[in-house]
């Protein structure tokens, strides 16, 4: 009787320990499923933010073009000028800086540093600074509509290399998303070149 009770207790303990292990495995699977769900749900959010950032560049460019419509060129345009003359959309203003929907600083002017446009220049740049790889991939593969394409002459990507993309020629914009993986790095600057 004693031995049978001992064996039944051991088997009962094995059953209890097996039950705890099952619970641990089930909990691990639930946590894994939640993580996968969060990752999947964050992808559309990243797409939305990148699409909004690209459209913000277009909206900002249109406001600049409208402001300069009666002037012969973009002389003097830079970030400070745009801020002082209320050219920047309210949705992009944060503490006297221009910030896109991705949370990145935006500069206006000429070149990577947004220098003031010199007399006679018929174009300007909108610069997205320190773009991460995922956002870079989404922005460099973004498809603009036909009206938006008219003002955007090219897109310059600067990281450890510098490459200019346009609507035709050798480096065609937008790129297929798989190609952007090769050219986007951990830190990127994207310059939208407008006329």
Task: Draw up the topology in text.
Layout: H1 2-67, H2 79-84, E1 93-94, E2 97-98, E3 106-109, E4 124-131, H3 133-140, H4 146-151, E5 152-158, E6 162-165, H5 177-183, E7 188-194
Antiparallel strand pairs: 1-2, 3-4, 4-7, 5-6, 5-7
Helix pairs in contact: 1-3, 3-5
What is the residue-mean pLDDT, rounded to a whole number?
84
How far apart lie the N and C ends? Answer: 95 Å
Q: Main sheet? A: 5 strands, antiparallel
CATH class: Alpha Beta
**Count of distinct structural domains:** 1
Query: So, CATH architecture?
Result: 2-Layer Sandwich
CATH superfamily: TcpA-like pilin
Q: What portion of residues belong to β-strands?
A: 15-25%
Secondary-structure class: alpha+beta
Q: How many whole angstroms does the radius of gyration measure?
A: 27 Å
Helix content: 40-55%
Strand order of the largest sheet: 3-4-7-5-6
| SSE ordering | HHEEEEHHEEHE
Defining key terms:
195 residues, alpha+beta, TcpA-like pilin, five-stranded antiparallel sheet, two-stranded antiparallel sheet, 5 helices
At a glance:
By secondary structure, the chain is an alpha+beta fold. The chain has helices at 2-67, 79-84, 133-140, 146-151, 177-183, and strands at residues 93-94, 97-98, 106-109, 124-131, 152-158, 162-165, 188-194.
3D structure, described in words:
It contains 5 helices and 7 strands. With 195 residues, the protein is an alpha+beta fold. The chain has one domain (46-194): TcpA-like pilin. A 5-stranded antiparallel sheet has the order 3-4-7-5-6. Strands 1-2 form a two-stranded antiparallel ribbon. Strand 1 (93-94) and strand 2 (97-98) form a beta hairpin. The longest helix is centred in the N-terminal third of the chain and has 66 residues, at 2-67. The radius of gyration is 27 Å and the shape is elongated.
């Amino acid at each position: 009787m004693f031995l049978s009770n001992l064996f039944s207790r051991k088997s009962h303990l094995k059953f209890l320990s097996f039950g705890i292990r099952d619970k641990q495995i089930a909990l691990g699977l639930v946590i894994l499923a939640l993580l996968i769900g969060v990752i999947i749900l964050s992808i559309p959010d990243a797409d939305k933010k990148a699409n909004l950032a690209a459209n913000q560049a277009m909206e900002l460019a249109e406001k600049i073009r409208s402001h300069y419509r009666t002037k012969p060129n973009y002389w003097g345009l830079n970030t400070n000028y745009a801020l002082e003359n209320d050219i920047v959309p309210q949705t992009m203003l944060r503490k006297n800086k221009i910030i896109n929907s991705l949370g990145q600083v935006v500069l206006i002017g000429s070149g990577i540093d947004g220098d003031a446009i010199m007399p006679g220049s018929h174009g300007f740049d909108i610069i997205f600074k320190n773009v991460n790889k995922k956002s870079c991939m989404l922005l460099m593969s973004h498809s603009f509509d036909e009206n938006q394409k008219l003002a955007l002459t090219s897109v310059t990507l600067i990281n450890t290399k510098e490459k200019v993309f346009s609507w035709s020629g050798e480096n065609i914009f937008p790129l297929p998303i798989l190609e952007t993986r090769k050219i986007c790095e951990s830190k990127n600057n994207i310059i939208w070149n407008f006329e």
